[in-house]
Amino acid sequence: MIDEIVQDIEDCDDPREQFELLIELGDQAESLDDKWKIENFRVQGCTSNVWLVALPDDSSPSGLKFLADSDAHLVRGLVTLVLYLVKDKTAAEIAEYDFESKFDQLGLARHLSSARSNGLKSMADRVRQLSQMPAE
Fold it and tell me: InterPro entries attached here (predicted)?
């Protein structure tokens, strides 16, 4: 289902429809327990509150399971998209992943405000940073 939504986002030229798809993507994401919604896990550089956590996961190539949430529906969809893009990637692949090109390919740069675009970049940077930390 998430694969289909991402494909639909990629195929969509209508910004309003694309935002609706992103919100739907966020609605389908695993929810983040409130215990993680603290300042230590908040992504800096986002206008909305975004919390991003990396937990140990032996079944993942990166050894991490990423979880995220936001207090804004659209931003929750954006952070879910970021996590989807690195799903099943190794830590090295995540470190080298070209989020910006993918965001451009999806047309997000054209449709997001500069503040939202900066926040999206901050989310991607935080995922990269967390992927390089040893799982505890």
Answer: Fe-S_metab-assoc_dom
